[in-house]
Design goal:
This protein is α/β, with parallel strands linked by helices and 593 residues long.
Length: 593
């Protein structure tokens, strides 16, 4: 009897899509024995945004997470999501970094490498595929699915053929946004099977309400592997429930052979775990058919919400979703998956806030000028012209982007050691996130953040009742990046802040830097303000330098993208905010003159 093999995504994509990737390793441990006995083909548990979240928010070593999960899952392969030449970062890396990362990932516990590229550019996948093949692990090459005039089943089938030639053990259709419709999935899989005889895996999100039907038709078309998520972390921007698919196929030629009772025990466990992460819940929990137009991936929706709140523009979500479709077209109909989803999404936010392409991120400029790879279609010529000028490029890059990157691992390793790295794995962590890793290395001895502290995130009265008199001080417990703080707001308007006691606070990383009050602008100089909330990444010129109007003077990081701030007049520059400091929108960051 032919059977369908299931991969469960509860340890990675499910909480990335629903809970902003905040699930701690400690909350996974209690389910590992149950998960390992079910009979999944694989458990997706590493890669994607988990690596970033571990060091940025949870004070966890992602490599230690991988080793711990491997120890607890001796019978089930761990799958990781790898972004081809981007690995887990937001830029292309040299080939020697790709080789080293894949080698160490396999050594530490990865059994299945799911490798994709946002541009579907085979040149960006070959090196990672070759490195994964050398480890002897299963190599699954993924196609980033999009619905545009330039993405047809014939194009996808040809990609499947090319990936088979790379030596792929299986092919994954990676539908990040829930765009794959049931009958289109059937036709697509038939076309792929005609082009190549290697197994096909279907990955689709539940965002648009299509996913269960799509998985059923995919099985009928001949797909061998399906991605699902245990029901207590399914649906919404996540995935189809594992139990639903198991029951749908029971007694048919597609029977998964999995025990629903065992799955229900796992579901009960994660139902309780999910309650701890209520503060991170996405509001997109039903079927959101707007995504059929905007094509925003499930994992990006919750991030987009929080980013708009950070900019004080949460009421602009509908405008941004509409603008995303425009930016995607202007960027050559690029599929929306990390990092292109973040690039396009952030550019759409800036377009809505400031006017279309009046402010272009460095990453948008790189994307439309070939620095991420070949686009499906020609980018908007006017946007390309602006991008070339802004980034001072001579022409659009036509070669493989990594060809222009010399070997860099030795240099990165030396920098990482100076920043506190102890191992080769630490050096690779630094390579992925050089701005975040040093703080993580410093705070790692404090131990991981406890999810118990997340429940206190929303400011709640610490004592007394809602009927307290106005003249008494109000006391709250506020959680910042997992650390609890006592905040007392006094009648006269002053605020007192002190760290709270307890294990979670002691184990937490240092809280994020607060925006400094705007420094006074004196002497008649012209103030330059931050257009959006973010962090000062770099002073582009030296303090006291003579600058001209229009010169780039500061680069800030906002919504994970880089944005240039330019001088508004000529004169000597005086910086009001140091590098590494958080700033608010419209906060003065420099003075000219």
């Amino acid at each position: 009897m032919a059977t369908i093999k299931l991969n469960d995504l509860v340890l990675r994509d499910a909480h990335q899509s629903l809970l902003a990737t905040r699930m701690t390793t400690a909350d996974m441990l209690g389910a590992l024995d149950m998960l390992d006995k079910v009979g999944y083909w694989a458990l997706e548990a590493w890669g994607g945004a988990t690596f970033d979240s571990c060091i940025r928010f949870l004070n966890e070593d992602p490599w230690e997470r991988l080793r711990t999960l491997k120890k607890g899952l001796p019978n089930t392969p761990i799958m990781m999501l790898l972004r081809g030449q981007n690995l887990l970062g937001y830029r292309h890396y040299a080939d020697d970094v790709v080789d080293k990362f894949v080698e160490k990932a396999a050594e530490n516990g990865v059994g299945v490498f799911r490798i994709f590229d946002a541009c579907n550019d085979p040149r960006n996948l070959k090196r990672a595929a070759d490195a994964a093949k050398k480890t002897g692990k299963h190599v699954q090459m993924a196609i980033s699915y999009a619905t545009t005039p330039y993405h047809t089943k014939e194009i996808y089938a040809d990609l499947a053929r090319k990936y088979a030639e790379f030596g792929a053990d299986s092919i994954c259709v990676k539908d990040m946004s829930g765009l794959l419709k049931p009958y289109e999935a059937y036709a697509l899989i038939k076309a792929m099977k005609a082009a190549s005889d290697i197994p096909v895996n279907i990955h689709t999100h539940a965002t648009t309400g299509l996913s269960v039907a799509t998985l059923v038709k995919s099985a009928e078309a001949g797909a061998e592997f399906l991605d699902t998520t245990i029901s207590s972390l399914a649906m919404g921007t996540s995935h189809s429930p594992t139990e639903t698919i198991v029951e749908a196929f029971k007694g048919t030629e597609y029977d998964t052979g999995l025990d629903t009772k065992a799955l229900l025990e796992i579901a009960a466990y994660f139902r309780e775990v999910r309650k701890k992460y209520a503060r991170f819940e996405s509001s997109f929990l039903g079927a959101d058919t707007r995504i059929l137009v905007s094509q925003v991936p499930g994992g990006m929706l919750s991030n987009l919400e929080s980013q708009l709140k950070e900019q004080g523009a949460q009421d602009k979500i509908d405008d941004v979703l509409k603008e995303i479709a425009v930016v995607q077209k202007d960027c050559g109909y690029i599929p929306l998956v990390t990092p292109t989803s973040q690039i396009v999404g952030t550019q759409a936010v800036f377009n809505v806030l400031f006017g279309r392409y009046s402010k272009i991120t460095t990453e948008t400029a790189d994307l439309v000028t070939g620095r991420y790879g070949a686009l499906a279609a020609e980018a908007n010529p006017e946007l390309v012209k602006k991008a070339l000028a802004q980034n001072k490029y001579d022409a659009v890059l036509t070669e493989r982007p990594a060809d222009s990157i010399p070997n860099e691992f030795e240099k990165i390793e030396a920098e990482a050691k100076a920043a506190g790295a102890k191992t080769t794995e630490d050096a690779l962590t630094y390579a992925m996130f050089p701005k975040v890793a040093p703080a993580f290395f410093r705070d790692r001895p404090k131990g991981p953040v406890s999810s118990a502290g997340f429940a206190a995130a929303a400011a709640k009265p610490e004592a007394g009742d809602s009927g307290a008199k106005a003249e008494t001080a109000s006391a709250y417990v506020v959680n910042v990046n997992g650390a609890d703080y006592h905040v007392q707001v006094r009648p006269e308007g002053t605020v007192a802040i002190a760290p709270a006691g307890g294990t979670a606070s002691a184990a937490a990383p240092a809280p994020a830097a607060e925006p400094v009050p705007a420094a006074p602008v004196s002497g008649g100089g012209a103030a330059v303000v931050a257009p959006v909330a973010g962090t000062v990444l770099k002073h582009a010129v030296a303090e006291g330098s003579q600058v001209s109007s229009g010169d780039t003077i500061i680069i800030i990081e906002s919504m994970k993208m880089e944005l240039e701030i330019k001088a508004t007049s000529a004169g000597k520059i005086h910086f009001l905010v140091p590098t590494g400091q958080a700033v608010q929108a419209q906060q003065p960051v420099a003075q000219v003159g």
